[in-house]
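Supplementary Methods, section 5.1.

A reviewer requested that the exact input to the structure prediction be made available. We therefore reproduce it here, unchanged from the version used in the analyses.
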Amino acid sequence: MMHSLWPAYAGLALLGFTIGGYGTLVGAGGGFMLMPVLLLIYPHKPAAEVAAVSLACILLNTISGGIAFAKQGRIDYRSALLFSTTIIPGSIFGAMATKYVPRADFEGVFALFLIGLSIFMFLKKTESRAKQGEHAKVRKHSSRLRRPVSKALNGIVFEYEYNSLFGVTIFLFLGFIVSFLGIGGGALIVPALMYLLDFPIFIAAGTSTLIIAIVCATSTVMHVALGSFHLWALIHIVAIGVGMIFGAQIGAYLSSRVKGALIVKCLAAALGAAGIKMILAALAL
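The structure derived from this sequence is encoded cell-by-cell as follows.
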C-alpha cells in the first residue's frame, strides 16, 4: 500500500520544490500558488483544512528562505517586528473567520483578489535597482531606516523612510486577509511594502519572509486549536514542506541575481494565472 503512494508523495514534494523556489524568488512565500493548487486538487476538502496545510507549508518555506535572505543582509528586522505587532491579531481573527465561510464564496473572493492584484502590479512601474538604492521621500516620516545590503547586490546602500502608524494600520488588515485566504501573505505583503511604504523590492522580498513566518506560525497554531489538522493534513505538510525547504534555498539564491522589475512581473504573472485557473475550474463544475 505504501509503495503505491510513493509517486503521489514524490509529486507533492516536487510541487513544494517548484512553488517554494518561485515563491521565495519573488519574496511571496508561495502561498498564493499553493493554496489555489490544493483547492483544485482536493475540491471536496473543507477550505479550513486546505488553508491549514498551506499555511504550515509556507511556514517551513519562509524559514528556509529567510535564513538565506538573512545571510544576504536583506531583512529589515526592526520593521518586520514592528508590523508583526498588528498583523498577528489580524491573522488570529482571519483564521477564525475561515471556519464560517462557504468554500464557494471563499474561492470566489480568492480568485478575484489574485487577478486584481496581478493587474495592479503589471500596470505599476518598478524602479531600477540603482534607483531603489537612492533616498525615497514619503509623506510624513516617523521612521527612518538606512541599511547596507550584501555584495550579491553590488554593495548598494538602500535608504528609505515610511510612516510607522500607517504601516502598522496596513498590517492589521493584511493579517486578517492573509490568514483568511490561507496564503501566508507574501502576495500582499511584498506589494504593500513596495507601493504603500516605499521599500526597495530587494529589501521588501527579504523582510516579507520574516513577517510571513510570524503570520504563518500564528495562523497554524490557531488552525490546530480549531481542529483543522488531521492525518491527511500532516502527510501533505511533510511531503510538500520537504520540497519547499529545498526550493526556497534555490529561490533565495536566484533572487539576488534577477532584476527587480522582472521579479515583480513574475509575481504578477503567477498571481493572475492562479486566479484565472480558479475561475475556469469553478465554471467547469
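Residues 2-284 form one domain. These observations are discussed further in the main text.
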